[in-house]
Amino acid sequence: MMKFDVLIVGGGLAGGTLALALEPLGLKVAMVEAITDEQRHASPAGDRALALARGSVDIFEQLGIWPSVSKHATPIKTIHVSDKGHFGKTRLSATELGVDSLGHVITARYLEMAIADLCRQRQIEIMCPAKVTGLNTEATAIKVELANHGKSTHCQSRLVVAADGGNSQIRQWVGIGYEVNDYHQKALVANISTEIPHDYVAFERFTETGPLAMLPLQASRCAMIWTHGEKNAGEMLALAPHAFEASLQDTFGWKLGRLKLEGKVKAFPLCLIRAQRLFAERVALVGNAAHQLHPVAGQGFNLGLRDVVALARLLESQNHHGGDPGAFTMLEKYAKARASDHNRTIGFSHGLIDLFVPSTIPVTLGRNLGLMVLDHLPTVKHWFARHAMGMAEDS
Ligand SMILES: Cc1cc2nc3c(=O)[nH]c(=O)nc-3n(C[C@H](O)[C@H](O)[C@H](O)COP(=O)(O)OP(=O)(O)OC[C@H]3O[C@@H](n4cnc5c(N)ncnc54)[C@H](O)[C@@H]3O)c2cc1C
User: Fold this and answer.
1) Among residues 169, 21, 142, 243, which one has the least CA distance to residue 235?
2) Confidence class of residue 334 from pLDDT cuts 50, 70 and 90?
3) How far away, in angstroms, is 112 Cα from ligand 1 center?
């Protein structure tokens, strides 16, 4: 039977990045992924745009991932936040904060494929397509059952990392409970070509249906992420392209001139899923398996990446001292190290939704005053910007 120190279940963004972070440590690491690279490349979900915080770009640079993806990434130089039909608005600018960009936007597919390619180049042991179908925790290791081309095989690992996404089965098998907050909303996602260049501005506009983000992409295009209630989303998806464009234009306005749809609009159901614990015996949770967030604040993967770095650092130190990579004390340290960032980031994202859901006049007034205050109070604005840039930990 194959034996590993660390078995990563899930080769998405979190699992793949963790594999790359662990590769130089000299541990025996393997990654199991259920779908092939071709399936991932063809997946419509790959069209979603990711806003990468500055902190995430720094991590990608340290891991040697950034050179492979930077050519696909567009810097955000300004964030423009506004409330449709109301007076409040605020701008956060990189120059004002003394940085060259507030973050970058990249189409998820480019990042996923670059990480998968790097994992292969660095000769990380990858079992793909293979699916973990069961676990059995023993005193010194976990026995893992895999289904591979219809055949059942086994391996064992001293630590299993669940990077298997928001509906993590590993989380369920090891008895870690989770909380779900269904927003009964869908994010409508599409690429939009704009008549006027975006000038590297990311727009976040709070509208009567829900938040609308227009993130800068390459070649005078923007990534639209527009949140609607479930019923409304269904109606929007049924619209002919020109009617959808007219509705988008009416909601967003003319700051970028005429807006045109490029390709189809895709819908993603939105809910907050949060694991009640980050570890079980010889198992750690990272990325969406630990927390799946609403994309309104663009924080989901940024937070997951910080899980990956924290776990990799602890494993490095454990390995340095010849310790067990699945040791309870190390997993406890991992959970402790991540607690405040999780509370702060999940609270920040969820709070934004509460504040900006279609709402009553007092809340609208409150948030407009909030945006105005934000614009005139540099300290608060900097606090907001540091959250948006994924650097709140440093503040
Ligand atoms: C519309 C939208 C916009 C977003 N925008 C942003 C943004 O701007 N910024 C940001 O930071 N985040 C954003 N996110 C969130 C981000 O996309 C996710 O946080 C991130 O993709 C999660 O990565 P992951 O690797 O944890 O999970 P996943 O991407 O779900 O990967 C899990 C992997 O595990 C595999 N798997 C599952 N079960 C098994 C098994 N039993 N055996 C083997 N393999 C298995 C799956 O095939 C999959 O490849 C957005 C999300 C959406 C939907």
Assistant:
1) 243
2) very high
3) 10
Ligand 1 and 33: CB distance under 6 A: yes
Q: Is 268 in the pocket of ligand 1 (CB under 6 A)?
A: yes
242 confidence band (pLDDT: 50, 70, 90)? very high
Residue carrying the six token digits 């609308």: 212
Q: Checking DSSP bridges between strand 74-76 and strand 103-107, what pairing results, if any?
A: antiparallel
Nearest protein CA to atom 41 of ligand 1, as residue: 132
CA 289 to ligand 1 centroid distance, Å: 9
Q: Whose CA is nearest to atom 37 of ligand 1?
A: 164
Mean pLDDT throughout 111-115? 96
With a 6 Å cutoff on the Cβ, whether 135 touches ligand 1 is no
Q: Please report the DSSP string for 276-315 in residue order.
A: S-SEETTEEE-GGGTEE--GGGS-HHHHHHHHHHHHHHHH
Residue 122 lies in a domain: yes
Q: Is 375 exposed, middle or buried (0-12, 13-18, 19+ CB in 10 A)?
A: middle
The amino acid at 61: E
* Mean pLDDT, range 207-229, rounded to an integer: 89
Q: pLDDT for 33-91, tens place per residue? A: 999 999 999 998 899 999 898 889 999 999 999 999 999 999 999 988 876 665 556 77
Q: So what's the pLDDT on residue 395?
A: 33
Structural domains in the chain (count): 1
Q: Does a structural domain hold residue 158? A: yes
What confidence tens digit (pLDDT) does each residue in 258-302 have?
Answer: 999 999 999 999 899 999 999 999 999 999 999 999 887 778 999
Q: What is the pLDDT of residue 149?
A: 84
Mean pLDDT in residue range 163-192: 95
> Is 207 part of a structural domain of the chain?
no
**Within-domain flag for 94:** no
Q: Is there an atom of ligand 1 within 6 Å of 9 CB?
A: yes
* Tokens coding 147: 């289904």
Is residue 46 within 8 A of residue 112, CB to CB? The reply is: yes
Task: Supply the CATH number for residue 43's domain.
Answer: 3.50.50.60
* Surface-to-core class of residue 51, CB atoms within 10 Å of its CB (0-12 exposed, 13-18 middle, 19+ buried): buried
Domain that holds residue 163: 2-74+104-180+272-358
Q: Is the CB of 55 under 6 A from ligand 1?
A: no
